[in-house]
Design a protein that fits this description.
alpha+beta; about 300 residues; about 25% helix
Length: about 300
Amino acid sequence: MTQVTCPGLPADWLNGWLAAVGATVLDSRIRLHWTTDGEPLAVLSANEVDPVAAIVESWPDEALLSDLPIAKNWRGAGEVRRKVPVEAFVARARAARGHRYSWTLSSTMTDLCVDENGEVAHAPLDPAGPGTIKWLHHRLMKLHARVDLSSAQLRESLAGHAARVQDNGLGFDQTRLGSQSDVTSMWIDPVVEVLAFFGLAMLPVRGRGADRRLDRYADVRERQRGWRSASESRAPRRFHWPAWSRPLDSAGIDALMDVWNPENRVTWPRVGVHAGWRSVRFDPRGSADTTRAFGPERL
């Protein structure tokens, strides 16, 4: 087995964690675990192939990304932008059923939570973007266009040495933000952002589907996997994510996310988890600040 330790993908960086997970989604040969000394770092491994070469080989081209089910127009199934009427979502979901990348719909929005305008809810990790880049697929295509992936470039990103470019990225990485004196300056690594998009495959979003006319206090907010709140239903939710010591493929990570209980630390060793974090939401600078970002708090 060949393995690569990735200082550029520390477990306490949400985008780094998602990117490492995304590598296993992108190429089924790749396994992921995390170092146990100090700050956990991603370790990508594969049998009889260099994980870096595997990712480069499996890197999506423009044609594949253009044909994802969350594209603005897709195979005659209507139009989807940021605001998605429930009827448009239903039509798109029916058309995408059984598609390899149907998760791009189920990990970003749900018709089990619909607002007063009849529009479906978006996942917390699918925030609205600024200006004209308000929907996720548009942002993804913009990021992909900035990457001409080579083994050397990928190794730089995995090592944390890649030069960042000015962009909003997927729109939720805390490290993209500039200083308080330069709120418009945002810098990202597009390679990590594209990989992080594929990590969203592990995080489906849903809702209770409750009728607010029947229970005005019902929790009808969207629910994305990994997001938990305190005992009071109205408490803010936080995303929880683990680091584990056994090499897992995407199916193994999927199973781990089901059985890991961040609130019961005694059970962590049973599933190979040795560290965990929860998200801390960026505090807006004012009422007009629509910036979305999540940092880490170690459990």
